[in-house]
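User: tokens in, sequence out, please.
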């Protein structure tokens, strides 16, 4: 009787660049996806279908109706239940391919957990929504020699760049400093799902090259495209910068917690508070808050609406407070309703 796995990946194995040996390497690999939004959801589904043996999806947020236009892994039921994206992703990926081991992690990536999250990965894929997290991932990957693939998409544009520590420039080589001032986000400039899908496809291609051992096919380049204006550009990057703070000097200030505020703007008229690392009994808290406002809860999060504000709580004490971009107001709401 034919092996079902041989049939499942037969068309992929026929591709000369991968073959049976490359497929076996994919099967033995672990990929970590940091962020499961527009890019991460496309990438996660593609890697699961490709037969990557283990996939870890890390995300701090929950599914909302506005996500469904571009985050292909989720559906209306996920949004109705306000499921954490990591939980919803794990469930859908297991249905896509039961041969793949999937681990969804509800977590904000921080200096204290990033090295544990990426440990043992063959490749890390960037699905983050902010440069702060990307610099943190870059430093952790360079420190431990783990390849990763940077990617970003907004409006009709996107870009991606593979990083092979010691062989190609890292993110800090190319962008030594955090972008100054406000940058466009999906919440301010919108996004086409085709832009996210196109960039994710290129990101996954580089990840598959890395996991299958085809490192000679990985180019040191920053590739950008605009699906609306029909433009694509590839910038050759050459070697790592000899004066790079991360590559050359091995200075990991983001890993050390420098320059990382305790409150991070989520980019959608919301503030995330992750300075309260403590366990919360969401069920008990829901009962206490019901007389004060509208409460929705499940096994993973609690949503509390009072006036123009919504507080979304996670069991570790982290909160996303919607309706303000003022950190002082966010702290005040947290202290008033949750506790200081």
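Assistant: Sequence out:
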């Amino acid at each position: 009787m034919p092996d079902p796995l041989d049939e499942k990946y037969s068309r992929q194995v026929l591709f000369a660049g991968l073959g049976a040996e490359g497929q076996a390497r994919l099967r033995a690999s672990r990929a970590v996806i940091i962020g499961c939004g527009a890019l991460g959801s496309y990438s996660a589904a593609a890697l699961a279908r490709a037969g990557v043996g283990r996939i870890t999806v890390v995300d701090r947020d929950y599914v909302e109706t506005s996500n469904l236009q571009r985050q292909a892994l989720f559906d209306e039921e996920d949004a109705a239940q306000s499921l954490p994206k990591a939980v919803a992703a794990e469930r859908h990926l297991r249905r896509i391919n039961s041969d793949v081991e999937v681990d969804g992690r509800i977590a904000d990536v921080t200096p204290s957990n990033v090295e544990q999250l990426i440990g043992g990965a063959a490749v890390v894929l960037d699905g983050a929504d902010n440069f702060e997290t990307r610099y943190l991932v870059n430093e952790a990957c360079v420190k431990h020699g783990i390849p990763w693939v940077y990617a970003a998409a907004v409006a009709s544009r996107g870009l991606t760049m593979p990083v092979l520590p010691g062989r190609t420039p890292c993110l800090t080589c190319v962008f030594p400093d955090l972008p100054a001032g406000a940058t466009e986000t999906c919440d301010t400039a919108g996004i086409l799902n085709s832009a996210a899908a196109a960039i994710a496809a290129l990101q996954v291609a580089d990840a598959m090259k890395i996991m299958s051992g085809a490192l000679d096919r990985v180019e040191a380049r920053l590739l950008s495209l605009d699906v609306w204006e029909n433009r694509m550009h590839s910038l050759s990057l050459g070697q790592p910068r000899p004066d790079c703070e991360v590559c050359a000097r091995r200075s990991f200030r983001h890993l050390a917690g420098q320059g990382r505020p305790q409150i991070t703007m989520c980019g959608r008229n919301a503030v995330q508070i992750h300075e309260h690392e403590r366990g919360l009994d969401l069920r008990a808290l829901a009962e206490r808050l019901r007389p004060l406002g509208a409460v929705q809860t499940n096994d993973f999060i609690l949503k509390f609406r009072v006036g123009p504000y919504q507080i979304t709580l996670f069991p570790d004490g982290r909160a996303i407070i919607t309706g303000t971009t003022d950190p002082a107001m966010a702290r005040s709401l947290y202290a008033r309703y949750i506790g200081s």
